[in-house]
Amino acid sequence: MGQRTRHLEEVEPLKEDCAVIQILDFLADDILHRPEQLQPLNCELIARITSLVGDLDVDLNVPLVVDDE
C-alpha cells in the first residue's frame, strides 16, 4: 500500500477563535482561584432556565438588534 503524507500549515486564528479563547481563559482562571464557587447543574436550575427561555427560538446566525445591545 502507498504511504500517506500529511501537510500541516499554520493558519491565523479567527477573531471568533480569539474571543472563545479569552472566555475559556477567564473561566479557567476563575475556576482555579475560586473552585468553591463551582456548582453542578441540578434539576431545579435546569427547570428554572427552561421556564425562562425554554420556548425561545434563537438563530445564532442573525445579528443582534442594536437596541438590544
Beta strands, count: 0
What's the overall average pLDDT, rounded? 83
Q: Could you give the order of the helices and strands?
A: HH
Number of helices: 2
Pfam families: PrlF_antitoxin
GO biological process, one term: regulation of cell growth
GO molecular function: DNA-binding transcription factor activity; toxin sequestering activity
InterPro entries: PrlF_antitoxin
What does this structure look like?
This protein has a domain at 13-52. It has helices at 15-33, 43-53. The protein is mainly α and 69 residues long.
Please give the structural blueprint:
Layout: H1 15-33, H2 43-53
Pfam families: PrlF_antitoxin (PF15937)
InterPro entries: PrlF_antitoxin
GO molecular function: DNA-binding transcription factor activity; toxin sequestering activity
How would you concisely characterize the structure shown here?
It holds the Pfam family PrlF_antitoxin. This protein has 69 residues and is mainly α.
Task: Give descriptors for this structure.
69 residues, mainly alpha, 43% helix, DNA-binding transcription factor activity, PrlF_antitoxin, toxin sequestering activity
